[in-house]
């Protein structure tokens, strides 16, 4: 099967963008500005790569109006070239067929319901009272427990687990290995032994959320753990019970959010960052990679913790001094911090 | 099916607690103090929420004797309201049916043994010489390799992997995606290439342990990796080969314990904390979130590393100074640290 | 079945090593120097354990020539005792049978190809146009999507996912729960909502790589994510899209490498370390545990960030001073850092 191919004219017209240069140029795939060939589409968004433009062999380049001044080959002009590239390149994305129907090997509880337009792959099990809505795709090896909902158009790529009481909105995408609705880490110490606190809540995931591979979202203790719409979680993230994450917030890989934390809307949480439990982060907060949030953040802005990377010998010297920091500060007359 | 409902009288009697107020009040679920309705049970443990009591609509509130003075509605009096709530709320926990028997799709090696009272779900495979004891539950998609034991009453929720030589005690709970008994990360460099060091040990998990979703516990190189009884591991934790974790220790999500570390009893390891290999942590040590333990800890107590969160502009200035810390300290006459 | 047993003579001869003492001593397993019995083989590599040698009951000890001076029991002499032990102990490793053939429950797309000598376990699904080469082992519950290749002699232990366009070289080992080829975390913000950037690349894994349990390697956005040969990744690691990792590099558990970072050859990245995206690390760099690499590293050597662990009371005082560090430095006349 030959890949789909499109002329610059066709692309400009389909996406409502302006054509610059020869509209007959045809592309059948994408490439980076540095390496794309004559039949590939590339983009220029970051000014730091502008120098690559003159040498680029790309058949079509998506770029801003300014960058096209004097450009003698074919361009498609966009205010936001990266977003335009994202939309155009979707034309070239291979989409595996996921026909409607239930694979013969799937095990579905009689009390569950599966829309006739949904796809249920091999080795899927679906528990009591769960519901899979129109057009949803449940990939191979997925386990859906009791009282779950997979909203219309959602896709569980493969080997996802929804343990219990997980309600997904529409067009939610969940990558392999993710576990939603496991019992939260609720423990009481009683007579020298741990006692489990039953986790009676569920997980609610809003429309258009995406959840990365091997990410975990625990179900709530009493109320639900909540992701509002369009939340984006990368891989290997831990979301504790009763966390609430506001709409359009994105969290990078390996971050951890402890129980009952509330994160606002339009936040960006960096990779391997941590958020301690029972605090609030307001809207539009950026937390840089591997920073730890230990108290509530009430002002939008960018926040960080940690120390810079150094060669190990220098680091050892400076790190040792960190232990003397309060004493050093006192010696030079610094104000005491806690006493 | 109507949910179970209990009167305050019934609950007080069943759990050996004292009733305060009208024993005929009936509840069929739980709620938070702030949001529970008249048919729900709530609890008051943390004094910071005492102010919510007057407005609470909860049918029954579990609380300490002191807090009940003057309280005009129905309460159940407990010395430890949180633990009492945990026990009572278990009455309202939906427990999916896991009937005894082996699902038709399961693949069980002829040399394996499964107790007749155990539940084996769909798409489970059990390898040679492994044993599943009385009342154990092996959830859908679980893979049990060779020479494993699942002790009586243990539950592997779904999609768990026991690779080889994993022996679980009784009443162990393992959440989805957890991997126990994978080969530890043992490498020798030989002539410029890595050589695997065979991992001949196993994993031993004591009674009443609980292991979170997507957590990994590697098998030992020569001897076993060991969790003593009642150890609680949250999600996405890495436990390296030959680690030993003492009884009643709890570790929060995303923590990492490197090979051959020994952690004592009744320790609390915070989220995303790290423990370097080949060291010892004594009993009753608390390590705060995202701290790194790089040498043995011989005294009980609370330990931390890291720096506080700041706005990024301030952080950049201070972090840059961290690189000069040894030089600054010398300038003000601080004692040298390593030379 | 009795375990295999070997005399010291046989072992020395098989591995081309020199025998010291009685060649008739026979062993059928391995142990640590401290605990091995008369029928077990141990090793002495780290001089710090030399003191254990005199009391060791091990039947055979692998050691350096020097350490054998005056040793009166049986030894096998090796320049690198740890590597020699690794090779010898492989004789005692139980290798589960993985016969050639496809389990009856497996679901294989008609356009996929599976070599007749490969083993396909229960509940495996293999998607369109994927290929499993000679002698490969695909363990239970593994999901292989479209356009993947599993090279000759590779082993996917169990419950692995190759999502799409993942090409594994020869003798690659992947532990349970690992996810390769999931869509990278590529997002553009458009009109206040996230827009997915299609992830059209794949993942290429070189010969002899090993990938730990629950580790994730995302597929590239335009070009591929690449692991060169003999790369070793521990458990729970996140490798972002378009990362390139040089040959013979090893990364410890819970590390995170963000998109488009390039890591050189023979690097050692410590546990829970982080590497920010779009930077380069040259060959032979060591990054210590939980350090964060935020800019390119151009010189081989060891690098660190973070602060030392302290008792929490001391840490609080010193950490509070970290916030005043720039002000303190100015007071004693330090050079400003950014203005």
UniProtKB/TrEMBL annotation, chains A, B, C:
InterPro entries: Hexapep, LpxD, Trimer_LpxA-like_sf, UDP_GlcNAc_AcTrfase_non-rep. One of its GO terms (molecular function) is UDP-3-O-[(3R)-3-hydroxyacyl]-glucosamine N-acyltransferase activity. Residues 25-91 form the UDP-3-O-[3-hydroxymyristoyl] glucosamine N-acyltransferase non-repeat region domain. Keywords: Acyltransferase, Lipid A biosynthesis, Lipid biosynthesis, Lipid metabolism, Repeat, Transferase. It catalyses: a UDP-3-O-[(3R)-3-hydroxyacyl]-alpha-D-glucosamine + a (3R)-hydroxyacyl-[ACP] = a UDP-2-N,3-O-bis[(3R)-3-hydroxyacyl]-alpha-D-glucosamine + holo-[ACP] + H(+). Its EC number is 2.3.1.191. Coiled coil: none annotated. The active site is at 241 (proton acceptor). The keyword Nucleotide-binding does not apply. Pathway: Bacterial outer membrane biogenesis; LPS lipid A biosynthesis. It holds the Pfam family Hexapep_2. Catalyzes the N-acylation of UDP-3-O-acylglucosamine using 3-hydroxyacyl-ACP as the acyl donor. Is involved in the biosynthesis of lipid A, a phosphorylated glycolipid that anchors the lipopolysaccharide to the outer membrane of the cell. Belongs to the transferase hexapeptide repeat family. LpxD subfamily. Homotrimer. NCBIfam families: lipid_A_lpxD, PRK00892.1. HAMAP family: LpxD (MF_00523). This is UDP-3-O-acylglucosamine N-acyltransferase. It comes from Lysobacter arvi.
